[in-house]
Amino acid sequence: MSTKDKKVDTTETSSEVATGNMATLSHKICYTRYNSPFWQVVIVSFVAFGCPGMYNALSGIGGGGQLDTTTAAKGHIALSSVSAVGNLFVAPALTNLLGPKWTILIGGLPYVLYAGSLLAYTHTGNQGFVIGSSALLGIGASLLWISQGAIMTGYPLPQQQGRMIGVFWIIFNLGGFLGSMISFGLNFHSKSGTVSDGTYIAFMCIMAVGCSCAFGLLKPYNVIREDNSRAAVDRKPRVWDEFKATLKVLRDWRVVSLIPFWITANYAYNYQQNTFNAKLFTIRTRSFNGAMYWLAQMGSSYVFGLFLDNRSMNRRQRGIWGFGITALISMIVWAGGLAAQLRRGPNSDYYPLNEMDLITSGTKYAGPFLLYFFYGCFDAVWQTLVYWTIGYLSHESPEQAARYVGAFKCMEAVGGAIASKVNSDKTNYNIEFAIDWSIVVFSLIWALPFMWKIEDLPAHAGNEDETEYVKGPTEEAVGP
């Protein structure tokens, strides 16, 4: 049966649907039904708030809160290397076989172990424990992020994906913001250069609570969209079918066009957090900077997500303008980074290492702080556009979305591993900065074929084999 032959049963739907105004309804988001895409995205957002959000808070401080950033960089190499393999062939299949609840629950537990390894490292200096737990975290992160991406891009309708990405990014990065503020408060008077034991213990508790939120997730079949369709059909996937579907994704020329764009998504983190934030500032200032970095991400992602859902433009126009805005923001922010680099060069002591402080450095602190804040804006806009492209490619199906997210996360992990290797080798920070900016420029150019071929999709475009329409909510159940 073709997509156009699938009719919505309007016998128990709203008057708006009955009169055929489905396009208007599909732009609205249901805030009252637990089985709506909105609430499922909110639930997975709180898992991300507690687990990767707290991880980001530690990373944003620089070096996982340690003065020795090399150990954290080596751990990140292990994490990214394991994730690169798991993201592509293992996590998407397990997500579709086990369902999001158990996949995300299992994926969240290694985050607690990782925070515990940093606590142990503070007292024992056991680098192997940190690297080993980072490798396990690579497995957990694969499971968590693939399932999360499938929910965020596969559950909402195309007209709602930008806002759903923004909602997730707000709640998720609220974890990084609050985690950084906790570290700021606990380490306000610290002179040691490393965070306190209480910081790690607090993070471990929050991570454990975040894992438990996964119990609130439903099967994709039980999630009902605003156009009265189910997010997926109720079927039992097979391992071989999942493997073949993943290979099909890798043969898509559009994926090839997006590979550098996806690799760049996390590439700059090592420079921003370990080379910039961790090297220039005192521990309390690093924590404060980290909080503002994630705060910048929250606002930027949501505003950009609203733009990507702009009803005054079709999807092709939104995609082209989205890439254009991302390119403009990238060039402005990294040009600011160049200005900062020139003032911290080998012949300049304008920005002395580990001495910049939000209280004692006066106006000299303002420039580096604003730059780090806008690095957060840059990252949020880039990530939001990445997930929007995945939503475009997957055509609303969470099963297909898991495969595309797996391909993205594989490329992202490869980029993260390379960046961590560059960072752990203590590469000259001017060279590291130049590599980061060059990759940003190259990835935007390489993505031009994909950008130019973006097509507008029908209001109810979906995977013909995976979309099923059912009786839907009443008008009262749909929010504004």
UniProtKB/TrEMBL annotation:
Pfam families: UNC-93 (PF05978)
Keywords: Membrane, Transmembrane, Transmembrane helix
SUPFAM superfamilies: MFS general substrate transporter (SSF103473)
Entry's Gene Ontology cellular component terms: membrane
Coiled-coil residue spans: none
Compartment(s) where it occurs, according to its Swiss-Prot or TrEMBL record: Membrane
Keyword Transmembrane: yes
Name recorded for this polypeptide: Uncharacterized protein
